[in-house]
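Input sequence (87 aa), recorded before submission:
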Amino acid sequence: MPRQTRSQALGPFLAAASSTKAIRKRVMLIGHERGLDASSLADVLKAKAHTERGLEKLLRFAGDHNLNCDWLFTGDLRGLRQMRPRA
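Predicted structure, token format:
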């Protein structure tokens, strides 16, 4: 049996990290960390990244809160390190 490449081996984990559920968890983490109220997060939590409207909402949220999109959409920790702290 041929050996799997790194991307083949990580495929299921990468898919899970970029799921709508995982993105929502990261939005909730930011909301908790930054003290955002539930009403400001409600619209973003309903957004689905695989639709154009949902992606626009998530990108606007990321821009408004200085979030790294690599971290928000895939959970990439290098993106988390690059984010600017809240002023």
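Checked by second reader. The two ends are 53 Å apart (CA to CA).
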